[in-house]
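Field: COMPLEX_INPUT
Field: COMPONENT_COUNT = two
Field: RESIDUE_TOTAL = 1046
Field: MODE = joint
Values follow.
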Amino acid sequence: MSKSNDLTNNELSYSELSNIITHHNLFIWKTNINGHYSYFNDEWINFIGLKQNETCNILIDLIHEDDILTYKEQSRDAFNKQKDLKVTFRIKNNSDEYVWIQQNGKPNYNTDHQFIGHIGTFELYSKNILGTDQAKIVANLQRDLGKITAKEIRVTKELKEVQKIASLGSWYLNLETDEVYWSEELYEIFGFDSKLPPPTFAKQVKIFTPDSWRVLTKAVEKTIKKGESYELELETITKNESNGWMWAKGEAVFNNNNTIIGLRGIAQDITLKKHIELQLKNNIKALSKNEDELRKSNQLLEHAGKVANLGAWEVDLVKNTNTWSKTTYEIHEVPDGFEPHPEKGIEFYKEGYSRNRITEVFTDCIQHGISFDETLQLITYKGNEIWVRAIGVPEMKDGKCLRVYGVFQNISEEKAREEELFLSSKKIADYKYALNQSAIVSITDINGIITFANQNFCDLSKYREDELIGQTHKIINSGYHQKSFWKDMWQTISKGSDWQREVKNKAKDGSYYWVNTFIIPFKDNDGKITQFMSLRYEITARKEKEIELLESNKRAEEAQKRLMLASNAAHLGIWDWDIIENDLIWDERMYELFGQDKNSTEKTFELWANTLHPDDRESAIEEVNETLKSSDGFDTSFRIIHPNGKVLYIKADAIVLRDKNGNPERMIGVNYDISELKERELRLKAQNQQLTDFSNIVAHNLRAPLVNIEMLTEAIEEAEDQQEHDDYISKLKSVIYNLNGVFDELIESMQVRQDTEIENDHVDLKERLDLILGSFQANINASKAIINVDFSEVSTLHFPVKYIDSIFLNLVSNALKYKSHDRKPIINIKTRKEKNNSILLIVSDNGLGMDMKLAKDNLFKIRKTFHNHPEAKGFGLFMIKTQIEAMQGEIWAESEVNIGTSFFVKLKNPNL
Amino acid sequence: MKVIKNLFIVDDDETFTFLTVKRISRTNLVENIKTFQNGLDILSYLKENKKSTEVLPDVILLDINMPIMDGWQFLERFEPLTEELKKNIVIYILSSSIFPGDIDRAKNSKIISDFIIKPFTDEKLLDITKKIAS
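Field: COMPLEX_OUTPUT
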């Protein structure tokens, strides 16, 4: 792989990768060669709540049943064809909630390019199209993504900082291809042009001095063969031909089969440090020749030592004494008055390797005159464990060692930083790997010219790398965002701040994709921006769903508005009954319709049942129950008694929603007031009845006299003598008179019906009744009739005075006319207050009475009489019924032969 | 030749019955003609004379629109009485009504032979006599 195609060539072992990814809150899975899950990372195990003893394959049991088929098909397909896997499904998490997961995977191969299974990630994926939790889920996702990316940004920045400070470079050697990767810093260390590919390992011979190259190749060989890591200081020949020093640490990279497939390491320029050290070493050598000078130089050393934390020491083998410089005392953390001694000095080294090694090299030094330079661990007097560098130089005379001089340096901090650097460099390399694998990465210069684009970028944008390099990101501009959007971006990143937005891009083939984009400016030591790095995550699917959802929400909202409008206009009450929870929800209209308080604590179903008209209650509830049992819904009507006393006709439509087994889950319905309609229907019925009555009148009461006239004229023509002729003429006159009467009555009744606009008068009942009774006074006196009047409950009403007069006139007249001859007539006239703003007027007598079985059908019909009374005309009751009904009232009668008759007049009187 | 022995007219319209009786008498087809004012009158007569075939009618011409008991109410009460009557009585509705409701109701009744619209003519009487004879 060439340098610019990847941020890092590090091939991490699986366990390492999963380690990193754990910190990303990413979920990792791996399948074996048989397509079975062989690994989940702990995050995922926690997320889905797997128990220790449960195998990975339990996963299938946690997938939503609606998604299992898709899941199985897709994963089988990916396995069979050894291709990429991308499948979305719902899975039960550890809280037993279903969440949407996108599973991504790639086929995994070993070094022999044999397929060994799949490896990939699970991503929390927002696809909840049920709506309610959508916003929450998207927000959570956004937040999680933000967290991950923020972490990556922070780490990337840390790396930059660390690398800048430490001139720490990293490298990677792929043993299979012999390809080498160098980080920017490494180029800098060697003064190489970073635009060129790094030299192969073999070519690196030029970089090092022959000695160092020998040491390095030996170490590398060992690493390749045995997997041992190394840590070396190497002398380098840089381009400007002055020698330098490099600290190098390397280790082997293993694949899953524990085969070494590469080497990686970090390197640091330590030339400056080395120069100081060598200088010191030389000084020591020079100074050590003279004791006095040494002592003098000690002061110098102290001074220098303070800077480098260097101490000096001397072991006089002749006198068997040990001399320490002040810094050496300090490094050992010994109390005042401590007497150094050669043996005591060695006892400070940590038991084990450090003590053994110092003993060994010190012995070598004394016996063979070999100087030493060791980095070892020391336990101070106070018990602190520190790293020190101990350099010892022997002074030989006649093959015998007289003295050993040396420097002593506390390098704990350095060591710690080294360790930290190595670790962080490794961590960062890992992050880079993860980033490069998971994200779409590009780097631009300060003018926005692309200098780097990773494979993901190329894959998604469908541009080749060489098509992207040298271009700006305008190449993938979709034109979707406004100019201000990009202006904001430039303003933000130019100030050195991070910028994050969801961006719609256009690929080379004209297709669009959405990416969550992070732009991070990188700065040099002076805080000047040197380049911009973009991290992107593809969110096309989510975004499309989001947009779709937004649109469908909008549509739903519009539909809701339209429904509101419609339901308001039509006075529709809507209800929704969750049968399982037995929760009946009414909308505001329902409460209005039923005249109930919205805040009522009573169960809605009870409210409904209690408001029903008693006559309809049982059947309405029965209908609901029947519908639940076996039907898809109902379309019915019933009456309710509104709390204001009005009886309302309610039309009710409902549908039942059932589960797979046909059990009812929900019932949704509308109710609306059809009272007006019903009233009109009733009125229409009444009018139809009136029309029928009228037809009857025409058929019987008008046609009958006409037939007579016809027959009489024929008879007149055929009359045999004058007497007969005259007889017929007089009969004809009587028929015509009768016919005239019928006509007059008909016209009068029709006027009542047409006179729909007749105005209500304020009527004093007593006053009107007295007037009528006055006109019957002679009759009353003659029959000695007793009239009892009780208007105490209702004494006045709003009604046409003409009709009231007519009602009193006809009912009193009937009572007097059909009096019993056996007893004194008693007529009771009273009013009663009824429910629903109605009043009842009752006129009862103790007269002849009627056989109601015979009279009921015809009592109020025109020209119907029920007594063989000479004055019975059969018009009065017909007339007042017409008048009462014209005012939406009712009239009926109860009667028993020879006991009496009661007439009941029910009048609406809302203005009472 | 007298074809019909007893013919009863039930109608409260005195002018009409007067003229109709006169007209029927002229034909000599009917031996006895009797008139009743309303349903109740004839019902009482029939109840009183249910065993006497001599005085029971062969034909009744029944008006609908009458006081006290109209034609329909009479028919309701007449039907349960037929079994007790010693004679099979033929009933015709004779009405001024040309109201389809009335005609339909008559057509649907088993005990009504036909619906005759007033006036009652000689032709209509002949039709009845033909039916009675056959």
